[in-house]
Structures are given as structure tokens and as C-alpha cells.
């Protein structure tokens, strides 16, 4: 993925006209921002914001907010003919107190004395030259965002609070304290109501973020009074980073202080959105446009969490697939809950290259609904991918390849003229396939022995393949395979029809081929696999299966 802001596209009249009618969700969200200012005119800069809680290492869900928001930003710039300035602010809530120790830190004992201190004041347990726990996690986030070429500005809550960027609105919060409390108190239980305050002072003695009741709010002097942890009555100004706001008021305060125009968040925030909006308005701001996305789930169907470290990490996805496949996964159905685990990677990779292949043949109307236009900010590359990722995985499985040169031997025969040098994208995919196979497919491979009917089918398939020329293409091979299956009663499917009008072929036939020959339950089109692997090699594989030599 490359940034639209770094690689300009030509905004032709045809493109702009197609964008005005585009139905892809980034365009729908961008239209909301246009409507927001249709009567007043645009401000100097349209501000897009994303939030990050550095209580744990950044996960893919965090990245997804930035990727998706960038897509909306790009769509907005196209719709406005790039005549309105925009900015994307990635805001880290690193002044939040560390309420629990994350499960995935290397040494919990380092952090235990620092519970409830701002994350930016908690020591870094990961090693390296980082000033704090939050600093390390913030750098990890920025490193990944930079890898994707996003155009953004990073912001630290600690720095903004201490530098006085929020002071004006914090003083207003002191003035309108009662209005804020009237919004917040009905959302709390009776016990919590008795002690609640939107202001959280930072203890001058312990450095912790304190959840304590206020004894006095002095709006004129902009101070709050409370009992510190040592029992001493203490007065602090609400400015200069001496206090922060509770997380719900903090949302609204930040929107009002910065003039945020668009922010998306997960479904777990949806019921609170009305609270954020109301507090923003109380503090003199205008609530931004929202986009609520569904949450990502791990392999057990549980919400992924930075502190738990479940699901996929950013680096883990990139170990097994190109970055664009992750971008595609973020683009597709953002309002549908999706599992974010290793088994989604192969499909995402192949779908990306399928969309990319289709792009050059499409009209502008079709292109603007094609995910690759959004992933590449209007500049999708021209890439020829002759071998799908799923097929490469089966090739690795059948050939037991341990290095890329073995796979390239098969590829060069299958696609003459294609080399690692003239198709670096395919070469990268070959490396990904070997790593993915070794880590996820190989450990679960389980060959089964064929029964008598299956042995007969394999023997007939071997004879049929022997009649084909060595350079037969995938379609001819697939048809030959189907011819064999149609003659075997077990694999006849009378709900389908063959080209000759007889019964079609049951999918159980191909499942049998994969279970017996590859050690997996399913795979891509078997004729394509044979064309890539080789007819002679496939016949040898059948012979080994019949001799019960596969394991």
C-alpha cells in the first residue's frame, strides 16, 4: 500500500464523476463530511482522527482504524477535487493509567510497582532505547504505519496535556462541570455516582492516576481539590497535565479541542457515542462524523485484545503474506465481525491478486468499487500473478520443498519466461508459501489410506493422466479428471449435470484426492495443481499413495 498523498493521481473529470456515484463504503463516509459543510463551507483543514490505547503492543485492529480512515480521507479528497486540506491525526491515549499488567510482557515484576501510573510514566519492559512502556508501544505503531506509507501525524496525549494543547477546553470543562455530570451520572451505578468525577488528578506524591471524588471545583481559578493518596487535601490546576479526563469525557473533550471532523471506532464504543457527542457539544465543539466497525475475533471467537495478545499481531501477518492482503482484509465488510487468525491469510492473498488482475479491464465505475483502488490510493500496480497462493501451498506440500529454488523449478516449467527477477511479487509469494506451509499446514497434515473404491479411482486417474501430453493445461487436465469421476457411482452427483447431460461430479471426489494425495481436506482446482506440479510427478504421487508410502 502506498499513500495517495505521496503518489498523486490524475483527477480527471471522468474519475470525479464516477466518484460522485461510487457506492464503496469509503465514498459513502466521505459524502457525510461533504454534507457536513455544504451550508457553511469548509474550514482550513478537515481533521481525521484515529485513537490508540498503548496498554499493549499494537495489533491489527489498531492498524485497521488507520487504514480504513485513510481510505475515507482519500475518497474525500477525490470527491472535493483535492481542493480541501486534510490531516490524519493518530492519537495515543498514553496518559491513561495502567490498570492491569498486560499478559504478553516479558517481565511482569518490572511493571508491578507502577500500576495506575500513566502509561507514559511506566518503565519499558521490552528492552531497547525507549523512555517508557507507552513510548515503546507508540514507536511500534508508527513503525508499522510508516511501513505502509500512511500519511499521518502522531500525537501523544501526555504531550498534548502537558504542553497546554487542551488547557482552554479543560478550563471550560471546569466551568461546565455540572453539565458534564448531568450527562455522565445517569450512565453509572449508584455506588459509582457517589464518587465519580470527570477529572482524574495525577497524584503529586505517587504519580498515579487517581479515581477520587472532588471536594471542590473552582471554575474561576481553574482548579480542583481532592484528598491525595496520603490523605492530604490537595489542590491542582486542571491545566498543564496535572489532571486528565475520564475516558468518555476525554473523547468529547479531544474532539472539541482539536476540531475533529471524522473518527471511526469499534462496536464496543457504539452505545457511548451519544455521550462523546454530547460532551463535545457541551465543551463548545461539534461532534465529528462517525463510522462504527465490527470487532475482530481470534480463532476462538473472542475479541482480540492488546493486553491479551490474542489474535494476530501485525508482524505475524507480514511474516506470511504481503501487506496488501492485510489491507484488503481491512477493506472488506468492515461492519461484519471477522476472525483475524492465520487461516484467513491464504484467501486474503489470492483475493487481492484477483481484484488486482480485474482492475485493468474495468470501467471507472467498477474500479472505484474495486478494493485495490482504495488500497493503493488510486494507483494500483500492474502485477501478473500466474500462480495463486493456495496453489503454491499445495505445491510446497506435494514437493516437500524447503527452498524457493525447488518451487521455481516447477513454476518455470508451468509459466515459461516467468522468473524471480522479472516477477518479484511472485518470488515473494513463494517465500511466504514455504513459511506458511511449514508453520501451519505441515503440522496438521494427515494422509489417509484409500479404500477399495478410492484405489480403483486413483488407478483409473493414473491411466487417464498417462494419455495426456506433458504440457497439457489445467483445463484439459481438469476435464480428464472429471471424465474419470463420472464413471464411478460413488462420485456421481445427480443434482448436477455433466456437459454430456449425465450426472455431474460430487465434490467428495476432489476431497478424496486432497486427503489421500496431499494430506489436506481441500485445496484449489485440482487440474491447475497437476498442471503446475507436473503430470509425471502427479502420477508418481498416486503410485506412492497406492503403495501406502505417503506420510
TrEMBL record:
<keyword id="KW-0436">Ligase</keyword>
<dbReference type="GO" id="GO:0004824">
    <property type="term" value="F:lysine-tRNA ligase activity"/>
</dbReference>
<comment type="similarity">
    <text>Belongs to the class-I aminoacyl-tRNA synthetase family.</text>
</comment>
<dbReference type="InterPro" id="IPR020751">
    <property type="entry name" value="aa-tRNA-synth_I_codon-bd_sub2"/>
</dbReference>
<feature type="short sequence motif" description="'HIGH' region">
    <location>
        <begin position="54"/>
        <end position="62"/>
    </location>
</feature>
<dbReference type="GO" id="GO:0006430">
    <property type="term" value="P:lysyl-tRNA aminoacylation"/>
</dbReference>
<feature type="short sequence motif" description="'KMSKS' region">
    <location>
        <begin position="303"/>
        <end position="307"/>
    </location>
</feature>
<keyword id="KW-0963">Cytoplasm</keyword>
<dbReference type="InterPro" id="IPR002904">
    <property type="entry name" value="Lys-tRNA-ligase"/>
</dbReference>
<dbReference type="InterPro" id="IPR014729">
    <property type="entry name" value="Rossmann-like_a/b/a_fold"/>
</dbReference>
<dbReference type="GO" id="GO:0000049">
    <property type="term" value="F:tRNA binding"/>
</dbReference>
<keyword id="KW-0067">ATP-binding</keyword>
<feature type="binding site">
    <location>
        <position position="306"/>
    </location>
    <ligand>
        <name>ATP</name>
    </ligand>
</feature>
<dbReference type="GO" id="GO:0005737">
    <property type="term" value="C:cytoplasm"/>
</dbReference>
<keyword id="KW-0547">Nucleotide-binding</keyword>
<keyword id="KW-0030">Aminoacyl-tRNA synthetase</keyword>
<keyword id="KW-0648">Protein biosynthesis</keyword>
<dbReference type="InterPro" id="IPR008925">
    <property type="entry name" value="aa_tRNA-synth_I_cd-bd_sf"/>
</dbReference>
<dbReference type="InterPro" id="IPR001412">
    <property type="entry name" value="aa-tRNA-synth_I_CS"/>
</dbReference>
<dbReference type="GO" id="GO:0005524">
    <property type="term" value="F:ATP binding"/>
</dbReference>
<dbReference type="Pfam" id="PF01921">
    <property type="entry name" value="tRNA-synt_1f"/>
</dbReference>
<protein>
    <recommendedName>
        <fullName>Lysine--tRNA ligase</fullName>
        <ecNumber>6.1.1.6</ecNumber>
    </recommendedName>
</protein>
